[in-house]
């Protein structure tokens, strides 16, 4: 079996697991780059004949080509996923990524929305044409940590407001229930009662644009960018995922635990959730000042 044939079987597996097209595009990028490298360097096309040395040469080639460390790491992750899956499915007798060292990536502090920034955005939203909708959108994102696509997917029957919950369909069509606070519920109810005007009754999306059509992921992102410009902040500071990080940080800062946070965010593993603890440097320093063993000698 050639490596390209192996990729095709892998995509069938991903679709059977209901992975998104965005995920498949991620892997196709690595397939395209790796296949070109194999042909240019006359490496074996049969997956069974690839070795760890071939994969190391590929990653080295990416580094020397000037690809950023994060990009090299992404290609390495894709190859690891492919060959680990092939080994589990008994499609290969040996796994070339088993001892492959993952490229190191410098940890960067990513932008995180703060409560003050949310207040600024809510205040400036009154200058635009759908202030109630924008306020509800901002409050909901910061209060629940939903992914932007999850917000765009929300339907009216997903609002279980009498229970203080949202029914959310996440990655892989996995359903979960996410709590929503009183202030966010109030903002949502005000928007639904006074400003939401769908084009027709068949439109059940919670958030609609000024034409009454469902507000898309890109539409929400564009609106956030516009609000961000109005408050004089950088685009990345209030990007959609910065709201998700902001929710996670404030949840932990206010006493929430990582196990509950994992369920709310819809993470498949606790390791994904633990990354948010790295945003709590100030809190860790404050805790050290209170409980420092050295200061108690």
From TrEMBL:
Tagged with keyword DNA-binding: yes
Start and end residues of each Tyr recombinase domain: 108-289
Domain Core-binding (CB) span(s) in chain numbering: 1-87
One Gene Ontology molecular-function label: DNA binding
A Pfam family that the UniProt record links to this protein: Phage_int_SAM_4
GO biological process: DNA integration; DNA recombination
Domain of life: Bacteria
InterPro entries recorded: CB, DNA_brk_join_enz, Integrase-like_cat_sf, Integrase_catalytic, Integrase_recombinase_N, Integrase_SAM-like_N, Tyrosine_recombinase_XerCD
Keywords in alphabetical order: DNA integration, DNA recombination, DNA-binding
Coiled-coil portions: none
PANTHER family in alphabetical order: INTEGRASE_RECOMBINASE PROTEIN MJ0367-RELATED, PHAGE INTEGRASE-RELATED
Family, similarity comment: Belongs to the 'phage' integrase family.
Protein's UniProt name: Integrase
